[in-house]
Amino acid sequence: MFPDLNPLDPQQREMLQKSLGSLRPEQLVWLSGYLSGRASSFLPENSQGILPTGAPAANTLQAGAAALIPGASAAVALKLLVLYGTESGNAEALADKFFKASKKKGYKPTLKNMSDISPADLKKHDNILTIVSTWGDGEPPESAMSFYDSFMKDDVDLKGINFSVLSLGDTSYEKFCQTGKDFDARFEALGATRLVDREDCDVDFDDNYDDWSTKVFGKLAELQPAASAGIAAPAAADAGFAYTAAPAVVFDKKNPFPAEVVANINLNGTGSAKETVHLELSLEGSSLDYEVGDALGVVSENAEDVVLDCLAASKLKGDESVEVKKVGPMTLKEALKKHLDITALSRKVVQAYSDLTNSEQLTDILSDDRKEDFKQFTYGRQISDLFGITPFTGSAQDLVNLLRKLPPRLYSIASSIKAHPEEVHLTVAAVRYETFGKERKGVASTFLADDSQVGDKVLVYVHKNKNFRLPEDTNKPIIMVGPGTGIAPFRAFIEERAETSAAGDAWLFFGDQRYSYDFLYQLELQEHLENGDLTNLDVAFSRDQPQKVYVQNRMSEKGKELWDWIENKGAFFYVCGDAERMAGDVHDTLIKIAQEHGGKSEEDAIAYFENLKKDKRYQRDVY
Amino acid sequence: MSEDSKKLHPNEGIKTRSNFLRGTIAEGLADLSTGQLATDDLQLIKFHGTYQQDDRDIRAERRAKKLEKAYSFMIRIRVPGGVATPKQWLETDRLAHDYANGTIKLTTRQAFQFHGIIKTNLKQTIKEINDTAMDTIAACGDVNRNVMCNPNPFQSQVHAEILKLSQDISDHLTPATRAYHEIWLDGEKVESSKEEVEPIYGKTYLPRKFKIAIAVPPSNDVDIHANDLSFIAIVEEGKLVGYNVAVGGGMGMTHGAEDTFPRIADIIGFCTPEQAVDVSEKVVLVQRDFGNRVERKNARLKYTINDRSADWFRDKVNEYLGYDLQPERGYHFESNGDRFGWVYGEDGRSHYTLFVQGGRVLDTPEYKMMTALREIAKVHDGDFRLTANQNLVIANVSSWSQAEIERLIKHYGLDKAGQESGLRRSSIACVALPTCALALTEAERYLPTVITELEEVLEQAGIRHDDIVIRMTGCPNGCGRPFLAEIGFVGRAPGKYNVYLGGGHAGDRLSKMYREAYPEDKLVELLTPIILDYGKARNEGEKFGDFVIRAGYVEATVNGPDFHLNIKKDAFA
Q: Which residue of the set B15, B22, B76, B288 is catalytic?
């Protein structure tokens, strides 16, 4: 629990850890405020007493402490650039956290999104801490794409600059953390000095972040003894000594709120090949708030039959006692049901299983020259299938150790809290398919579809997405392209604009398989059209006729008007939904529209939309 | 109160305002937010050959799922005389799969019908139908609809003549408005409605639908008494000499309104083949001018005649013609059913009549009729003829392709169709649920079950192979001509049918109500003793419809107005 570097003796450490571990979240919040106040009251005169073990000389701390106290004269602080590239907002949130922490420690940090900087600007900085995520097939985040491209290509001399990379990713993808790896290698190639090694995080990134930031701060402290190191004493101005009552509980990712399901409706009509669940959750009593454009984190569980299948395949019973790291002791079945990812077959899992079983077949498929074969091998397979190939012979704890933690899943919020006070709605496509003769299902989506019925409780938290926001100026028109579940945030947008009587026009492009069965929220949209909250609605249904028709075809048909909205009316353009094909097709269509109706060359059209992105008038929420 | 001072039926206003059937159909098609069209346009699209419907099976769930009703459209393809080329058959099959629900309904008026076409495909489907030299205009609506004629596989010369007459009448009475071409075929827009004239109909068209058929005795397969106007071919010494003209037949009625009734047609004279198109026009004109435009339920020609007299009507027609119809000639009808299997024509070509249950062409796991007909169409060098009884004739098969077609018939088991009983082969069912908006009960989906149960009774009575005409419709509007059947079931309320008995076997006598609002699960039980009695007590050659009258189950219906009279008390028990 405590970082390696701390001022406590082992006995204190043990006692504190024990008592802190028993605290409820609200108690912990109260205590932190209390301790901040206590600490700030005696820090200036008694700071000697809390010298970290092995900390630098006394004057270091003096200087550091001085830097923390407003009004005290500070030494020249080390300048940091906290550079991030974000898609879902996780990298941004961590960058923000690092930024604030470093500020408190007395550094002079600058926080920059990769979308707002060029490689040449990097030379102005001494220490560059990069936090970046990887998407899809090893791609950088959309907003970081152009920075990434020029950084990989431009010859910028970064000699004398220190760097470190924290990379976010998902081990279930082949090119895990590829973008972070690319940045790490490129910094080095351009002559920069690696401050600490790159840290690659799986979807459960909090601990990795803590490790990485501790190491980075440790190194930074060495670099400039003038800055505070070791303990993170809060600034006095932030101290809250006056807490008498416990503050309201804060529900967040670490402490999700159990929200009651108040509606669970399959929006697709009988006869549809799709299953899209409209879920309404009550936030009553949580004080949770969200803005349209935000996502909701859902802590899901594995389905009972999938757990049983995994137990059967591993020849374990389920009642064995196991220890789940950072959670505690429990039965194997509970661990598999609630805490561990028992489906996603990543290279890491296969590697670990191969090591555990000394399987020749697995060792072979894992070899570097068989990457394509490996991809083929994992396609459509899950962890339990692995046990069918090489029998599992380990203990229950071996199984637990093999698996990563079950990650929470983010869904774009489909409601405006103004339209539905104390509620949050989701639009979730239930993922079901068959491979290798077995019925498979998406963990989170079917958890919501099947195991989250009215009256049940689902653990949720709000995940801010600052990169997907309605224009501040409510007079601005908006164009929304959201086929399938991509409609979710736009239902929220339209509701929000209706509730706030926004004057700006709104145009929605929606698409799915079949008109009669898959026109999600049709009656609501008709009402919005009637009330003028929605100005235009264009729909495309791919399977109603021999030729497939998609939203981008409708955009082309309405190209002239669309261009007029963007170019002359200053419309904001939003895309939500499938990243693999739709978002790219929509983008290509935009470029063609700018060429055809805006008279632009292809290059200019591309640049036009790059600028639109920079101006936040072209925003995407794709997955 | 005089007719003039009464308020015209609202549909008359819709027609007047429609600018020759345009209304706001084109605008409605462009609105993608809804699968339906504007209310007034729903009346107008019928003239273009389509009805808006919705899937009534799933109505209940739709609102909860935030979906509007599952709207779709029925499209009726006009096939004058019911003759289609193999290429047209193949295209119809393709369109059914591309845009409709994968089935084709052969209607009781020798038309093709598609179901389940959504609004966004409506225009394209109608366009592609026209690309195959068929159309949909005037397949429904207050105009002359698909002209029927006997498919007559025996006398190819007579058939060629009556088929040509069907086509000529159809062409002559097709609305002249360009609206159809503008809306569906991207035809050039007419600049001003002033340029447009509708020479026969005028801008309010007819008061109600209008049906024409041509019969060739002894077959009354087209059911002349269900048509506003019929031509009964008079063949003397193998030559077609002319037609008896029958007017004022019709099926539709409204439950609970005794001033509505099915009616037997009156024969008002005889015309030569050359006069027939002219006669059809003048009959239409008299109805246009004298038909009831206030009460839509009394607007068919049968009421125009019934309210005055057949003599009055003949005089009017003679006046409009400018010459007199000749006296009617002798003829004799034997049956209104089809003859199945192979027959050989006078010109050496052969014809195979296939029983199509409920007129529904589709594939099931057990019976791949649709595939079979597609395969046959690919090798067929003759034509296909839709019969008025919802069956299909693979007609004009040349001697060199007959063996291959026979092989396909056997391979796909078409030869087994309808072999269960004469009752099944003589059955008609309308579409009804789930798509027809008028349906009160099931028909096409339910009649086969009733027949299967009755077949055990037939077996017991020893009359499995006797033809007994049985028909079921979901409402009393009569698409399946239930009041001309020996056994008729007409939907009255969900799960309940009025049961009618005693129709003439040749479609020459209306039936009489035997039970009102009878529960569907008791129908077989109700008919069992009558069928057993018929098996035992019938006279030599006596038809079921005649027997039930002689045996006293029902009184005979003589003409239209007495349809509701002389009903036995037990009917209302």
A: B76
Comparing A24-38, A74-88, A152-166, B127-141, the range with the smallest average pLDDT is A24-38
Q: Choosing among B31, B33, B99, B123, which should be mutated to test the A contact, i.e. which has the most A CBs within 10 A?
A: B33
CA A151/CA A215 separation, integer angstroms: 26
Alpha helix segments (H runs only) across B447-498: 447-461
Contact call for B61 and A516, based on CB within 8 A: no
Q: Residues of B with CB below 8 A from A517's CB?
A: 67, 70
pTM: 0.82
Token pair 């549809």 is at which residue?
A272
How many angstroms separate the CA atoms of B72 and B85, rounded?
Answer: 28
Out of B9-13, B176-180, B192-196, B250-254, least confident range: B192-196
Say if the Cβ atoms of A537 and B63 lie within 8 Å. Answer: no
Work out the angle at residue A211's Cα, subtended by the Cα atoms of residues A205 and A215, and round it to the nearest 5 degrees. Answer: 140
Give the burial string for A556-572 (b: 16+ CB within 10 Å, else e): eebbeebbebbeeeebb
Q: In angstroms, rounded to a whole number, what is the distance separating the alpha carbons of residues A620 and A578?
A: 10
Does the active-site annotation cover B209? yes
- Chain A residues with CB-CB distance to B99 below 8 A: 545
Active site residue B314: no
Say what the alpha-carbon torsion angle B396, B402, B406, B407 is, to the nearest 10 degrees: -140
pLDDT band (50, 70, 90) for residue A4:
low
What tens digit of pLDDT does each residue of A132-176 get? 999 877 889 887 888 898 899 888 889 889 999 999 998 877 788
Residues in B touching A520 (Cβ below 8 Å): 66
* Residue range A250-276: mean pLDDT, rounded: 95
> Annotated catalytic residue: which of B360, B479, B481, B492?
B479
* pLDDT tens digits, one per residue of B328-386: 999 999 999 999 999 988 788 999 999 999 999 999 999 999 999 999 999 999 999 99
* Stronger pLDDT, A247 or B354, i.e. the higher one: B354
* A557 interfacial to chain B (CB closer than 8 Å): no
Q: In chain B, which residues have their Cβ closer than 8 Å to the Cβ of A523?
A: 63, 66-68
Q: Are B450 and B521 in contact (CB under 8 A)?
A: no
The string of pLDDT tens digits covering residues B50-84 is 999 999 999 889 999 999 999 999 999 999 899 99
CB within 8 Å of chain B, chain A residues 210-269: 265-269
Residues of B in contact with A265 (CB under 8 A): 64-66
Nearest Cβ partner of B120 from A515, A525, A546? A515
* Residue of B140, B424, B436, B492 marked catalytic: B436
A70 has a pLDDT exceeding 80: no
**What value, to the nearest 5°, has the Cα angle with vertex A560 and ends A558 and A566?**
100
Reported for A522-527, long-range contacts at CB under 8 A and 24+ positions apart, including other chains, are A522/B33, A522/B66, A522/B67, A522/B68, A523/B63, A523/B66, A523/B67, A523/B68, A524/A491, A524/B66, A525/A494, A525/B33, A526/B33, A526/B34, A526/B68
Query: Which letter does DSSP use for residue A337 in this model?
Result: I
Q: Establish whether B479 is a catalytic residue.
A: yes
